[in-house]
């Protein structure tokens, strides 16, 4: 499997500085980052590490769940996956991820609601991004449409 790369260029202090995150492997874009906007309710067009983790987790989980639905004998027609990543103070200092909530709604043939919920939970555990984030509590709300 290939290695994927992102690069960040930062200038200035934490509170007044800013940076640009470049998705180097795909070359799909460069995005602004700043600590004040990271900590604000309104991101105002600026991304954050937490949003990038949410994007990675939701897309990885969708792929993992699709594969596991197939292994369970079902067919995925559509999935809508949202990952909400929370950040808060770390008692040891600085910040830490405080939780991730995965929400998935699916249109799937061949699995009933219980089968889908079981498969969704297995996908949460088996997703490579979930595995990388084992130090963070990950909750799941899974249902068929």
Write the layout of secondary structure elements.
Blueprint: E1 7-11, E2 18-22, E3 30-33, H1 35-38, H2 49-71, E4 75-89, E5 95-109, H3 113-126, H4 128-132, E6 138-144
Parallel strand pairs: 5-6
Antiparallel strand pairs: 1-2, 2-3, 4-5
Could you walk me through the main structural features you see in this protein, from its secondary elements to its overall organization?
The longest helix has 23 residues, at 49-71. The chain folds into two domains: 1-47, no CATH class; 49-144, GMP Synthetase, Chain A, domain 3 (2-Layer Sandwich). Helices cover 32% and strands 35% of the residues. With 145 residues, the protein is of the alpha+beta class. 23% of the residues are buried. It has helices at residues 35-38, 49-71, 113-126, 128-132; strands at 7-11, 18-22, 30-33, 75-89, 95-109, 138-144. The strands form two sheets. Strands 1-2-3 form a three-stranded antiparallel β-sheet. The chain starts with 6 loop residues before the first strand and ends with a strand. The chain is elongated. Helix 2 packs across helix 3. It has four helices and six strands.
């Amino acid at each position: 499997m290939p290695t994927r790369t992102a690069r960040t260029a930062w200038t200035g202090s934490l509170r007044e500085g800013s940076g640009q995150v470049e998705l180097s492997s795909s070359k799909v874009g460069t995005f602004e980052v700043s600590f004040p906007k990271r900590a604000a309710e309104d991101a105002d067009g600026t991304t954050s590490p937490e949003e990038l983790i949410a994007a990675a987790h939701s897309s990885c989980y969708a792929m993992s769940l699709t594969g596991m639905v197939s292994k369970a004998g079902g067919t995925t027609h559509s999935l809508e996956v949202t990952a909400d990543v929370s950040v808060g103070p770390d008692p040891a200092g600085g910040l830490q991820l405080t939780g991730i909530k995965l929400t998935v709604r699916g249109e799937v043939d061949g699995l009933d609601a219980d089968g889908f919920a079981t498969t969704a939970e297995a996908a949460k555990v088996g997703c490579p991004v979930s595995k990388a984030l084992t130090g963070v509590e990950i909750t799941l709300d899974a249902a068929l449409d």
